Amino acid sequence: MQSLRGSGVALITPFNEDLSIDFDGLTQLVEDTIANGIEYLVVLGTTGEGATLSDKEKEAVKKHIVTVTNKRLPLVLGVGGNNTAAIVKTLKNKDAIADFDAILSVSPYYNRPTQEGIYAHFKAISEASPLPIIMYNVPPRTGSNMLPETTLRLARDFENIIAIKEASGNMVQALRLLRDRPEGFLVISGEDMLALPMVTAGGDGVISVIGQGLPNPFSDMIRYGLDNAFAKAYTLHNKLMPCIDLIFEEGNPAGIKALLDRTGVCKPYVRLPLLKASESLTKKIDTYVTSF
Asked: Can you tell me the mean pLDDT for 135-162?
């Protein structure tokens, strides 16, 4: 799955002021990321506020993005949760995953399974999925850490588990994955701030949030890193660092939506329990964009 090296973007779901889905904004977002060098898109990941979308809305978002992209780049579908049986049922529904190249599946949240439970969860997903699987480890959100030993065991045992989106924030853990991974297994950063350090240590890229807000400089940074042009890569990294901090200051995706509002892509609205970015944060983002 070399097509999943580089910069992927976890797409937001734009909303109108009445909180209906803004399909025009979604079209502009997709076109902007494609035009500015993003290599692939993740649809209905957690950044897309999938927890607040109805099943009908999710289907509409999927179909819209598939139509707009028109096979111009790979698409990854978010299929995760803490109900293993429900995920397996989704994956056995061919219509639900048609037109996608891979799935992204988060380690079970809230339940806090043991490492053996995490292994059994992804084993069941592997056995049900006709598509390649990117596992997603994000302990601050799930409440449990998928240890390198578990990740690597799954990578070795199941051919269709092809990557890990690693967002533990622990570079030592990432380095252990990079050192011991089987040939061809992708280690992808799940954190914008650590994306370049992981790439320069041998990682394969990132699934990014800020990549949809500043797609050109961010994707250039990752390509420079993959090409070992480290001076150029870190020049961009240092310029992007303040904005990465800003977009997560009041949670995700409120910050990235404020940035996308500032750049004219879509409006800043989010659904409860999230709130749109404060006036103070919006002003800081505006100052950053003006000076970039």
From this structure: 97
